[in-house]
Amino acid sequence: MEEKVELQVSGEEFERVKNRVKGKNYLLDLERLETTLLLLKYRHLLERFNEVETRLSEVQRHWESLVEFEKKAKEDKTFLMEARKTLNEENILLERKVMGVESDSQRRETVETTHG
Amino acid sequence: MIVKGGKRWKRLTVEIPPEVEGRLRKLANDYGFTLVDVLKILLKGDFLENREGIRREDVDELQRKVFSLERELYELEGKWSPLKFKAYYLALDNRNLSIQLAAIIAQNKRLRKKLGLPKRDYSEIEGKIHYYLSFDKSGGEPSSE
Question: Which of A48, A69, A95 is facing B141, going by the closest CB pair?
Answer without folding.
Answer: A69
